[in-house]
Amino acid sequence: MLSTVIRTIDVDGVPIGYTDSGDPTGRSGSPVIVFGHSLLFGGWMFRAQIDVLRRHYRCIAIDWRGQGGTQPTPDGYDMDTLTADAVGVIRGLTLAPVHWVGVGMGGFVGQRVAARHGELLRSLTLLDTSAGPEDPAKIGRYTRLAWAVRLFGVDAVRGKLARLLFGPAFLRDPAAADLLDEWAQRLDRIDSVGTRKAILGVVGRAPADREITGVSVPTLVAVGVDDTVTPIQDAQRLAALIPKARLEIIERAGHSCVLEQPTVVTTLLQSFLADVDG
User: Fold this and answer.
1) Nearest 5°: phi and psi at 38?
2) Which of 169 and 153 is assigned the larger pLDDT?
């Protein structure tokens, strides 16, 4: 099983948390996958994929500021700073070139790494994410949720958050109850100030649509058919902007496809990465 021990690496004076599956050969020669999680999660959300992929890859899962195992910071929640954090982890651990797998905000960061530091990547996988700024029609709602989390805690808005982050099929499934409880408990343990800042960092992000047209690494774009946060049309536009990107639609999944359809996502990754690695 995936180790849950959070390690830290100093990136410009900030301790960034991550987990490391280690090299499966024990010789530091295996290809590396770096995972970037979605907003209101942590690197733990990839455990199903890592449990399989670690047999052939060294798997690193980063925790963004104020989430997972990375402590809140006074500032630095914008996508440019998080991109610098990701680059610092890749360079600091001497991982490049890596396969990047990002969901939601992890995809926002991955796009920027690919566009600005393409030499660090071997491939790019973008799940349930987009190239554009936040939809203006959603900004007010998300900002109010950020304040509600800060003032009243996760339990006060758990239902609303769950309906954003998970698809209806998953929410109706009795077998999903334990995972939903785990997600809520993990979120409740995180400092609410950091959570609010993370939400606002995503809501206020600048678009990346112009710079990603120069991305040259092999790219997989996938989206849950029931994702309302970054719907299918956003994924279609993202795939159209990146040269030769491949688009996949994942049935019976919302914004958190790696948790809602873990086997489907893992199989997609195995196939895509095998093609890239030749």
Assistant:
1) -85, 160
2) 169
pTM for this model (two decimals): 0.97
Dump pLDDT digits (tens) for 238-256. 999 999 999 999 999 999 9
Sequential DSSP letters for the chain: ----PPEEEEETTEEEEEEE---TTSSS-S-EEEEEPPTT--GGGGHHHHHHHTTTSEEEEE--TTSTTSPP-SS--SHHHHHHHHHHHHHHTT--SEEEEEETHHHHHHHHHHHH-GGGEEEEEEES--SS---HHHHHHHHHHHHHHHHH-GGGGHHHHHHHHS-HHHHH-GGGHHHHHHHHHHHHHS-HHHHHHHHHHHHTPPP-TTGGGG--S-EEEEEETT-SSS-HHHHHHHHHHSTT-EEEEETT--S-HHHHSHHHHHHHHHHHHHHHH-
Tell me: the pLDDT tens digits for 112-159? 999 999 999 999 999 999 999 999 999 999 999 888 888 887 788 889
Residues 88 and 96: their CA atoms lie apart, in Å, by: 11
> Under a CB-based contact definition with an 8 Å cutoff, are residues 195 and 218 in contact?
no
CA atoms of 251 and 177, how far apart (whole Å): 20
In angstroms, the CA 186 to CA 33 distance is 24
Q: Rounded to the nearest 5 degrees, what angle is found at the Cα of 53, between the Cα atoms of 214 and 88?
A: 50
For residue 63, give the amino acid letter.
D
Q: Which residue type does 247 have?
A: L
Furthest-apart CA atoms within the chain: distance in Å: 51
Residue type, 219: T
